[in-house]
Design goal:
Length: 420
């Protein structure tokens, strides 16, 4: 198979006589399953063969492969490379190819884990904590990653390579760990660190440890900027300009327009749109099911007519045939893959730029704010807005009241020093 793809050059020999020879079939299969052309696979395979040849010369095994090793190969070896003239040397192609190699290694459970660098006790503790965050709390992968990161740093700072024993921790250690970040972190980032430790201490409390005295040592940070800033949202005319910026004569434009309608009409988060599937839409009932949101809750929202029509047009005229159940698919290889959260951000950014709005509005969350403001101005209560935004606590919705300047002026008292 490798010889058929790499018709010339030392690639087949380098791959099959290297530490990653057993992964060659899985690596090629990864691209074939996702619809990559033979020419594209040839470029990636040639780049990986070059890396494999270098691994063998350095006597590195698969367990040594990580992003730092790839950076070292690209930044140092390629500069003075004296390997065969037929091998792949383009840094961009090599980085992409080796990024996919890491994905295959993760699938095959052969990637060297950074947790192996900490003690077995801390690694086991983090595994238990990860299971709690995913199964009990139902947190998103990004949130789980952040909490594991800071809890891992905390445990390593307190115990090093020793056994993890919470009975040995003192409130001062908890306090000092948070304060350590205060010199370079914003209040919002400090809150992430604090929440990570609070979540871990709650986890240990459920395991039977006494952690109340440690939790009380977590400092509280005032974030006045969060409550003083008034969110600027696009008005009705600007939203129309944003929606008109999509070219619906192309399949990609139909997909992007349907995504935009989900953001504007339903107030969905970017990752919630990316997680939509064909089974999410109940056409007869006129509802759409949201999964993969905060707390992994499954919720249903009414499907507006404009949103449903945009999705239907995409399904009929824009979505290519695929075995994937994802609603919105990539329109480039790998074809069977759903669009990513980053793709949602990018299509909004490009549409904002085409509409001349990018200087004023950035990100997808501003569309969620805009929907809340429209609901509030139409007379909806905060409780109704909270239900549509799927906020767990009503206080999270009160931030939108700050932007309703019209209602605030109506209740404002006149300034006593104003001249008649």
């Amino acid at each position: 198979m490798i010889e058929e793809i790499l018709k010339r050059g030392p690639g087949p020999t380098w791959l099959m006589d290297s530490p990653i020879s057993e992964l060659a079939a899985a690596y090629i299969g990864y691209f074939q399953e996702r619809g990559y052309t033979v020419e594209t696979i040839r470029g990636f395979l040639s780049a990986t063969a070059h890396f494999a040849h270098w691994l063998k010369s350095k006597r590195y095994g698969v367990d040594k492969i990580d992003q730092k090793l790839i950076d070292r190969f690209v930044e140092f070896h390629l500069r003075s490379c004296t390997c065969s003239a037929l091998c792949q040397r383009t840094p961009v192609i090599i980085r992409r190819a080796l990024g996919y190699l890491i994905t295959v290694l993760q699938t095959e459970s052969l990637l060297h884990s950074s947790e192996q660098k900490v003690s077995a006790s801390i690694a086991l503790e983090l595994d238990d904590f990860r299971h709690y965050l995913v199964t009990t709390c139902g947190l998103a992968p990004s949130t789980v990653a952040y909490r594991l990161k800071y809890v891992g740093q905390f445990l390593f700072r307190c115990f090093g390579k020793r056994q993890v024993k919470l009975s040995l921790l003192t409130p001062l250690q908890v306090h000092e760990f948070i304060i350590f970040f205060s010199k370079r972190f914003t209040p919002s980032s400090l809150q992430v660190v604090r929440s990570s430790l609070r979540s871990y201490l709650r986890f240990r409390r459920l395991k039977g440890d006494l952690t109340e005295h440690l939790t009380s040592a977590l400092p509280v940070f005032a974030n006045w900027k969060k409550f003083s800033k008034v969110t600027k949202v696009p008005n009705t005319e600007q939203l129309h300009a944003f929606l008109d910026a999509f070219d619906k004569t192309y399949p990609t434009g139909l997909r992007d327009y349907a995504v935009a309608r989900c953001l504007v009409d339903l107030g969905l988060r970017a990752h919630e749109v990316a997680n939509l599937s064909l089974d999410s839409v109940d056409w007869r009932g006129g509802v759409i099911t949201i999964t993969g949101g905060k707390g992994q809750r499954i919720q249903q929202l009414p499907l507006p007519r404009e949103t449903g029509e945009a999705i239907a047009q995409y399904l009929v005229k824009g979505r290519h045939r695929s075995t994937s159940r994802a609603l919105f698919l990539q329109h480039k290889t790998p074809f069977n893959s759903p669009i990513s959260t980053r793709a949602v951000y990018d299509l909004v950014r490009r549409a904002m730029a085409r509409a001349g709005l990018y200087q004023d509005f950035k990100g997808t969350h501003v569309l969620r704010h805009a929907m809340a403001i429209r609901l509030q101005e139409s007379g909806a209560s905060l409780k109704e807005i909270a239900d549509l935004l799927r906020h767990k606590h009503l206080q999270n919705t009160t931030i939108y009241a700050k932007a309703n300047q019209k209602d605030l002026r109506a209740i404002a008292l006149p300034w006593s020093g104003r001249q008649a």
